[in-house]
Each structure stands twice: as structure tokens, then as C-alpha cells.
Amino acid sequence: MTTEADMRGNRVLAAVPRPELDRLAEHLEPVTLKVGDMLYEIGGSVPHVYFPLTAVLSLITDVGNGHGHFVEVATVGDEGLAGLPVFLGAGPPSERATVQIAGSALRIGAEQFRHDVVVLDGGLQTAIQRYVQAMFTMMARNAACNRAHNIRQRCARWLLMTADRVHSDSFSLTQEFLAQMLGVRRASVSEVATALAADGCIRYSRGTIDVTDHERLQEHACSCYAVIRDAFAVAYEGLG
Amino acid sequence: MTTEADMRGNRVLAAVPRPELDRLAEHLEPVTLKVGDMLYEIGGSVPHVYFPLTAVLSLITDVGNGHGHFVEVATVGDEGLAGLPVFLGAGPPSERATVQIAGSALRIGAEQFRHDVVVLDGGLQTAIQRYVQAMFTMMARNAACNRAHNIRQRCARWLLMTADRVHSDSFSLTQEFLAQMLGVRRASVSEVATALAADGCIRYSRGTIDVTDHERLQEHACSCYAVIRDAFAVAYEGLG
DNA sequence: CCGCCTTTGTACGGTGGCGTACTCTAAAGT
DNA sequence: ACTTTAGAGTACGCCACCGTACAAAGGCGG
Predict the structure, then answer these.
(1) Pick from A61, A130, A149: which is nearest to B89 by CB?
(2) Parallel, antiparallel, or unpaired for β B29-33 and B103-109?
(3) Is A81 helix (H, G, I), strand (E, B) or coil?
(4) pLDDT above 90 covers what percent of chain A?
(5) Which domain holds residue A47?
(6) Quick check: B67 pLDDT over 60?
(7) Residue B233 counted as domain residue
(8) Same-domain check for residues A77 and A22
(9) A138 and A206 fall within a common domain
(10) Closest approach of chain B CAs to the CA of A29, in angstroms?
(11) Which domain-ending residue is among B118, B145, B172?
(12) Looking at the domain assignment, is residue A237 inside a domain?
């Protein structure tokens, strides 16, 4: 059981109208997520659907080939949910879902979720479909970004997106972790981070990052940041 | 108006049960698509939803920044449809849809499509949702592939996927075009193509490619080929 | 048959990011 | 207080791929 205030902290749930939301509330369970927790695995089952409140999740795919074993393909914050395969119904996930930034989330059992979405067939279904479209934009952009933009640009974008999701200019993050998310060497992150800090965009020390100048940081980032942010804005336009 | 045989040539439509399909038939219009035709533009309206039969489409996104202006983020063949924004309902597309390999397709007006999907709420909705999940896998993999695999691997994968979609070992394709799809120099494609031909995987001459040895070509490709192919197989499992 | 255009082969120097490895320092444990 | 460890800075050689350029060759119209 969960309060309405909690639920409105997730933008997908916030877009669900009252009576439907009340029924969902009974099945939504608040949980605290720690960095590195795995919510579901590639090819495995998806026991719960997660609606992040303050946590940030990461969808990661395995590229068998080579040494840099995995690559982040999308992130999920309070603007979305993890567990779309339950909604879409075409077999197990092709990504791993892990916790990128610790925090809180609401979760619901996969069976219950399926039941609620199908039976109610109202606001939740619509909200998720709109979210799916924004996810498409994010992933498309991600693919293009990986092809076209350099490390500094991608790194700056990642920091901006994460700051947006945690609603704070400060969050826990080691360069090692960031390097894995970006699919690059830690050494490269170190160089870029030093440059960004020298330019006054960020400060950091032993696992804590502070974004000190969003605008200037955005100048270092590629246009993908704005494109993705806007895609989510459009998806939730007039929905709550 | 369209015959059932035509409709069964597209795997999404093939998954729709009889009575529902009959009603769709009235509104599906057969069209012939030429290379380079643009079906819809980034941020523009989506007048029709397309179900390819023999044509292959390409979803392309603009990366403003730099010279290699655009990057392919997904392809659509007879296993899918183009125009998902109409289905998902969260604003205009963030990709351009163009024709990659000429051929036939069925199309339906966006308004009519929305009407049919919502009112009927049956097999088509389910089939599309499953397709959406497979598309997720493709795009996720694309993003990872762009980060992790070299030109030879990506080129080989692209050729294999295209051969699958056109159901033929031979199709029209210039190196210039392929280079744009992969987001690399034409010169790089030329080098890779020469190597693949020397290895007996492909033959080609002035705009026509022949895949002469799928298995050997697959050895040059990355695992992304099999992963994506299998994702679509799972999506359509037991659906028709 | 000739000239033109498209498609392809090939070469050159430049560079962004890689793999690796070593150092330094702040924090955490005992 | 002393050790250990995690986080971060830096350097070196290397290579895949880039931008660019030019030449060869197949196809097409005149």
C-alpha cells in the first residue's frame, strides 16, 4: 500500500487518473534500491515492474564479443518504468536492469501488473504507450550518439541526464562506473572529467559529482541531451 | 482493398485473426516504394502506416552536429511496420523513415489505423506490441553494436539482415549507400567489401550485391545479427 | 564509337580512443 | 598510528577509422 503523494512522484503513475490509481495503490510496494542491484537479467524472468521515485536505473546489454563486456542502452528514472517486457508480452528481456543511482521506487508483481493493465485498460495503458515512444527516441538517439559523438560530448550528456533524474546537482558516481556506462576506458573519463572541472562545469571527489554549471555543461554535450529531454516532455504533455 | 494472400506477406498482419483482418483489408492500400522515398520526416506528421511486403525501410535520425549528418537507427522489413508514433500516440516521430530497398508495401491512413486498432482492440494491438518489444531489442543492440563492434562486423551484419528481409541473396545496393547507413566512409566499406568478397562471402558489382555464403558471412558479423533475428522469432512465436 | 557519369579501388597523413601500467592520495579498517 | 584499498591522474605506443584525394573501370546516352 502506498500513498498518492508517493505515486505522483513517478511521472507515469502521475498520468493515471484517480480511481484507477487507487486500485493500483493496493499493489504498489515501496522499495529502496542500492547501487548495483539487479532487477532482472537478460533472458530471465521479470518478477516485478519498477516505477523509480528517486532511484535511477540502467538498461544494459551484453556484447559478448571483446573485453568491454556490456554497454548501457537506456536509463530509467522517475519519468518511466523498468519491466516493459511484462507490458509488451513478447518474451524475456534482452537487457539487464540494474541500479545506477541508489534511491526509492515503487514496484508491483508482474502478474498483478498484467492483470491491472489489461482489466483497467485506461490511463495506465495510455501513459505507458506514450512512455514507450519516448524510450524509442532515447534509444534511437543513443545509437546515433554512439556513432557520431565523442567522449566529452557523451559524458557531458550523461551527467546532465542523471542530474535531471535525481533532481539534484550532486550524486554518487565513480569514474570507473561512468566509464562502464559509456563503454569507454576509465582513463578517458578521467581526462574528460578533468577538462570539464577545469572549465567550471563540474566538481568531483572520490565518488561524488557536483554539476556546478548546467548551461556550460550543455555546451560540452551533444544535441542528444535536449532531444531526449524534449521527447519525454512531449510524451507527458497534458497528461499530468 | 487487398487480398488475404498479400496481407499474410507481412508478419504483423499475418498474426491478426481472420475477421479482424477482413475489416482491415478494406483500408489497406498496396503501394510500390522506390529507393529514397521518404515516408515521414523527423517532427513531421505521419500520414500513413506502412506494412512492408518486399520493400525494406530505414529509420534514420539526424545528428545535427558534424558532417555525417544522419545515422540509421533501425530497419523495417516484412516483419514489421513503419509509423509506430501513430500507434503510440506521443507526438511526432523523432526519426525519418525512408526506403532502403525498393519493393511493395501495404499502407493505411493514420486516422483509419488509429480507429481500427482502438475499436477492434484485438489481434492487431497484440501483434504490434510484440513487434515493439522486438524493435526495442534491435535498437538496444544497435546502440551497443555501434559502441563495441568494428566496421567489418557491422557491415556483415547489415548485409545478412537485409538479405533476410528481401528473402533473396541478391539486392541493389551501392557502397556509398551502405556507408551512409553504417555511418562510415565509403572508402571503409570498399575495403571491407573487398575483403568479404576475397573470402568468398559476397560478390558485387556496380550497385548489386550477392550474398554467396551466409554461414561464412555470419562468422564475420557480430553476435548482434543472431540476437536481433531471434528477438523477432520470439515475438512472432505461436502467432501465425 | 566517344565522352560522361556513376561506382569502386586505393593511398596518405592525422587523430581519437584503446590497452596497459604506474603513481598519488583520500578514506576506511584495525 | 599504520596498513590497505578505492578512486583518480597521467603517460606511452598502437590501431581502427577518419577526411581527402585521385585514378580506374563499367555502363549509358548521343
Answers:
(1) A130
(2) antiparallel
(3) coil
(4) 84
(5) 4-145
(6) no
(7) no
(8) yes
(9) no
(10) 26
(11) B145
(12) no
**CATH number of A121's domain:** 2.60.120.10
Looking at B107, B126, B145, which one is the last position of a domain? B145
C-alpha cell of A151?
Answer: 567522449
> Helix A151-166 and helix A186-198: axis angle, to 10°?
80
Task: Check B140 against A61: CB less than 8 A apart.
Answer: yes
Please write the tens of the pLDDT for every residue from A162-174: 999 999 999 999 9
Nearest beta carbon to residue A133 from set B63, B85, B139: B85
Q: Judge if B66 and B49 occupy the same domain.
A: yes
Could B143 and A148 be called an inter-chain contact, meaning their C-beta atoms sit closer than 8 Å?
no
Sign for the CA dihedral angle at B140, B142, B143, B144 comes to positive
The residues that bridge with A231 in the sheet, in sequence order, are none
Contact state of B136 with A84 under an 8 Å Cβ cutoff: yes
Is residue A73 situated within a structural domain? yes
Does residue A239 lie within any of the structural domains?
Answer: no
- Distance in angstroms (rounded) separating the CA atoms of residues B227 and A92: 13
Q: Which pLDDT score is estimated for A59? A: 97
Q: Do residues A111 and A24 both lie within one domain?
A: yes
In one letter, which amino acid is B163?
A: A
Beta carbons of B173 and B207 less than 8 angstroms apart: yes
Nucleotide nearest residue A192, measured CA to C1':
D9
Q: For strand D, give the nucleotides within 7 A of a protein CB.
A: 6-12, 16-21, 26-27
Ramachandran angles phi, psi of B96, nearest 5°? -95, 140
Look at chain A and report how many structural domains it folds into. 2
User: What residues have CB less than 8 Å from B5, skipping those under 6 apart?
Assistant: none
Same domain, A134 and A162: no
Give the pLDDT mean for B33-40.
95
Amino acid at A237: E
Beta bridge partners of B40: B97
Instruction: Say yes or no: A129 and A211 in one domain.
Output: no
| Confidence grade of residue B7 (pLDDT, cut at 50, 70, 90) | confident
Footprint of strand C on the protein (CB under 7 A): A 66-68, 150-152, 183-185, 187-188, 205-206; B 174-176, 186-187, 190-191, 193-194, 197, 204-207
Cβ of B94 within 8 Å of Cβ of A227? The answer is yes
**Residue A194, C-alpha cell as written in the block:** 578533468
- Percent composition of chain A: helix, strand, coil (DSSP 3-state, to 5): 50, 20, 30
Q: Three-state SS string across chain B, please?
A: CCCHHHHCCCHHHHCCCHHHHHHHHCCCEEEEECCCCEEECCCCCCCEEEEECCCEEEEEEECCCCCCCEEEEEEECCCCCECHHHHHCCCCCCCEEEEEECEEEEEEEHHHHHHHHHHHCCHHHHHHHHHHHHHHHHHHHHHHHHHHCCHHHHHHHHHHHHHHHHCCCEEECCHHHHHHHHCCCHHHHHHHHHHHHHCCCEEEECCEEEECCHHHHHHHCCCHHHHHHHHHHHHCCCCC
Distance between CA B236 and CA B229 in Å, rounded?
Answer: 11
